[in-house]
Amino acid sequence: MTPALGRVWLAAAGASLGALYGCGHQPGWLPILALVAGAGMLLRRRAAVRLVGVAAAAFAFGSIGSMARCEPEGVLSVLAARVPACRATGHILEAAGGLGTLAALEWIDCEGFVALTGAGVVVLDGDIAEAGASFSARGWLIPLGTDSFDRARRRLGAHAQLDAVALATRPPGSGPLALAARIRGGLRTATEPLDERSAALMRGLAIGDVAALDEGTIEVFRRSGLSHLLAVSGSNVAIVVASVSSLAARLGLRARLFLSSLALGLFVLIVGPDPSVLRATAMGGIGLAVIAFGARAEPLHALGIAVTVVVLLRPGLVYSVGLHLSVAATAGIVLWTRHLGAGLSWMKPRLLGLALAA
């Protein structure tokens, strides 16, 4: 392992440990001490000391970000302890799978309390609407518990649950999220002529939308070891970037990189911020940045940097099995495909051996 690779993965490990620490502790002096100590170590000449400094600084940033996101005693948390009946408006942040839907409150008025603006983030049961959609609701504000289910919700940034008895939503009107919603709607329209199963499968393969896919088909993919095809990841990101770059082939390098970056960001908005999507997008962005500087991206370096970036931006994902599997699968491909491909080089055509190795 080279010193550069060691620094990258120590940073990833430090950020991950910091995220784990921060979400279970009150703000204190440890992150600040780690940051100061790490900064001091980075100024030393000895390589080993600088490596420890990288890990300490990453731990500090990871824990600070995690503490901010997992804030246990926000205004909403205190208000929810009374379980008041409330009216609220806001916008949808993201669907969180079985955990519900995260929504940012713009205004909330609870009986017996002063109305608040920008109070924080709540979670609603079910898949309510697309990201960016606005909503108005009436229901009960409920505190999050200490069980594993509510702890997972808290790690995603939720401060309370809004148990809505009446809910109205409006799709996003303008901006990137509205464009992403129109593209998703366009895909649904384009697949309408197909039979129901084929249309659902097409949407699953293209953007990972398996909501309409029957359990039998999902089970077939799972048993055949191809369930990863229904989860958006690196291959989808590569297709998007390569397609945009090819369409803009007559433009200069900077224009192609700019358009590819825009397409990468829009793709995340279309498919949603799943762990594998964020990991793949971060690696894609690193690859584009490296090309812009005329250098070469080493896959393991890019993977380590991507893990660090994702954990720092979304500390709660350090608990995500999806992120763990995505990172492990990518590392396995990087480390073993070449060796397995060499062992299967006797197969004809050679691409078949490489495909089996991957």
Q: Quick one: overall form?
A: globular
**Sheet/helix structural class:** alpha+beta
Low-confidence stretches: none
The end-to-end span amounts to 23 Å
The beta-strand count equals: 5
Number of domains: 4
Q: What strand line-up does the widest sheet have? A: 1-2-3-5-4
Mean pLDDT: 84
Largest beta-sheet characterization: 5 strands, mixed, barrel
Q: How would you characterize the overall build of this protein?
A:
The protein has 358 residues and is an alpha+beta fold. It has four domains: 3-69, no CATH class; 75-170, Beta Barrel (OB fold (Dihydrolipoamide Acetyltransferase, E2P)), CATH 2.40.50; 182-229, no CATH class; 232-357, no CATH class. The protein is 57% helix and 14% strand. It has a five-stranded mixed β-barrel.
Give a quick precis of the structure:
The chain has 358 residues and is of the alpha+beta class.
Topology diagram in text:
Layout (H helix, E strand, L loop, with lengths): L2 H20 L7 H13 L4 H23 L5 H6 L4 E11 L5 E10 L5 E9 L9 E9 L5 H8 L4 E11 L5 H15 L5 H12 L7 H9 L10 H14 L5 H19 L3 H18 L6 H15 L7 H23 L6 H8 L1
Parallel strand pairs: 3-5
Antiparallel strand pairs: 1-2, 1-4, 2-3, 4-5
Helix pairs in contact: 1-3, 1-12, 2-3, 3-12, 6-10, 9-10, 9-11, 10-11, 11-12, 12-13, 13-14
Q: What descriptive keywords fit this protein?
A:
358 residues, alpha+beta, OB fold (Dihydrolipoamide Acetyltransferase, E2P), 4 domains, 14 helices
